[in-house]
Amino acid sequence: MSFRAEAVDQSKYAPAVEGILPAIxxxxxxxxxxxxxxxPADLAQLFEAARWAPSSYNEQPWRFLVGLRGTSTHQKITSxxxxxxxxxxxxxxxxxxxxxxxxxxxxxxxxxxxxxxxxAATALLVVQAAALGLATHQMxxxxxxxxRKALEIxxxxxxxxxxxxxxxxxxxxxxxxRMIAQEVAPxxxxxxxEFVLSAWGQPARLVE
Length: 208
Ligand SMILES: Cc1cc2nc3c(=O)[nH]c(=O)nc-3n(C[C@H](O)[C@H](O)[C@H](O)COP(=O)(O)O)c2cc1C
Description:
Blueprint: H1 5-12, H2 22-26, H3 40-51, E1 62-68, H4 72-80, H5 83-86, E2 94-101, H6 114-131, E3 135-139, H7 144-150, E4 157-166, H8 177-184, H9 192-195, E5 197-199, E6 202-203
Antiparallel strand pairs: 1-2, 2-4, 3-4, 5-6
The chain binds flavin mononucleotide.
Flavin mononucleotide binds at residues 28-29, 85, 138-141, 161, 187.
């Protein structure tokens, strides 16, 4: 059976819930990407969204190393990915590595929220991407030490995730049937009752 990108995209939307922002509703993580590059203006807009994320002490500890396809940064990020991620992610026109500064600038003390804040900035970035019709797919499965070395990340920065960015492509272009099946599989989520609690072990009653 063949699955067209547009139909797959729509099948992946979160169920419509009254009031949820359209970009949150539409965001999902494809592995198939088109060749089409991302415009510099769109890229700038994504980082503008990330820029306005909240952070502990307003430290803004996030840094993004952005590799456009054809550049050595894209190649270096690719080289650190595990083989599974290497089989699809390098097609994305943009690969970026998110890292977080682990010491506060105001007093050099440890910032225990550095990765948390990087995650918040990345969340805004991926939602803004969805609003622009762009696809993102974050990855944790890469060699952190190799990434640190290849991209010359200082020791006082924690390695976060790699994000592939571009336009969703045809699932049929993925390298094997298993990945195509994953690409078109329904998305799953825990019910609110599992993670919204009024006391430990007690689901919050949000709706009477
Ligand atoms: C920190 C992080 C690490 C991830 N690592 C990988 C990865 O190495 N390879 C991969 O294919 N997907 C990876 N994912 C994607 C998740 O599997 C995906 O976000 C999750 O299944 C939910 O799907 P959705 O983003 O389409 O809602 C990662 C996502 C996050 C946030």
